[in-house]
């Protein structure tokens, strides 16, 4: 029986690797939306606490350009793990919110890759529990 997770290699771009994931966070920090767009599959699903799932590359980019509550910041990555078509990254974000308040929080992202891009992303944030 064939592996149901196999991808069509005839349309695959460069494989997702640690350097490309690190570059994605650099693009977010720099506000380089053109570079960020290259990281995402056209049909990406981004799950982020406090939001309905963001569906599609254009919707995710609109979130970053217009809705994200972080005005500026820098991600400090502590770890990256890649295995086949899955991956995880964790670290911390230091920055300023759109209302001017400082932000400092830990995060972890999990990924599913397809054709060398992020097909699904789920973010988790280390914040006080209710």
Describe this protein's structure:
This protein has 130 residues and is α+β, with helices and mostly antiparallel strands. The protein has one domain: Nuclear Transport Factor 2, Chain: A. The chain is built from three helices and six strands; from the N terminus they run H-H-E-E-H-E-E-E-E. The protein has helices at residues 18-30, 33-37, 57-67; strands at residues 40-47, 54-55, 70-83, 86-97, 102-114, 117-126. A six-stranded mixed β-sheet has the order 2-1-6-5-4-3, covered by helices on one side. InterPro entries: NTF2-like_dom_sf, SnoaL-like. Pfam families: SnoaL_2. This is Nuclear transport factor 2 family protein.
Short description:
The protein is α+β, with helices and mostly antiparallel strands and 130 residues long. Helices cover 22% and strands 45% of the residues. It has one domain (18-126): Nuclear Transport Factor 2, Chain: A (Roll).
Tell me the layout of helices and strands.
Blueprint: H1 18-30, H2 33-37, E1 40-47, E2 54-55, H3 57-67, E3 70-83, E4 86-97, E5 102-114, E6 117-126
Parallel strand pairs: 1-6
Antiparallel strand pairs: 1-2, 3-4, 4-5, 5-6
On the 0 to 100 scale, the average pLDDT is: 89
Order of helices and strands, N to C? Answer: HHEEHEEEE
| Contiguous helical run count | 3
Any idea how many domains? 1
Low-confidence stretches: 1-12
- End-to-end gap: 46 Å
Total strand segments: 6
What integer value in Å does the Rg equal? 15 Å
């Amino acid at each position: 029986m064939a592996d149901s997770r196999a991808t069509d290699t005839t349309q695959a771009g460069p494989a997702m690797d640690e350097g490309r994931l690190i570059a994605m966070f650099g693009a977010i920090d720099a506000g380089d939306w053109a570079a960020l767009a290259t990281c995402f599959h056209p049909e990406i699903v981004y799950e982020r606490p406090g939001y309905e799932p963001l569906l599609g590359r254009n919707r995710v980019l609109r979130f970053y350009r217009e809705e994200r509550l972080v005005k500026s910041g820098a991600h400090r990555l502590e770890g990256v793990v890649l295995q086949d078509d899955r991956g995880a990254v964790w670290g911390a974000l230091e920055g300023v919110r759109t209302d001017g308040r400082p932000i400092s929080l830990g995060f972890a992202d999990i990924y599913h890759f397809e054709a060398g891009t992020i097909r699904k992303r789920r973010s988790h944030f280390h914040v006080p529990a209710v």
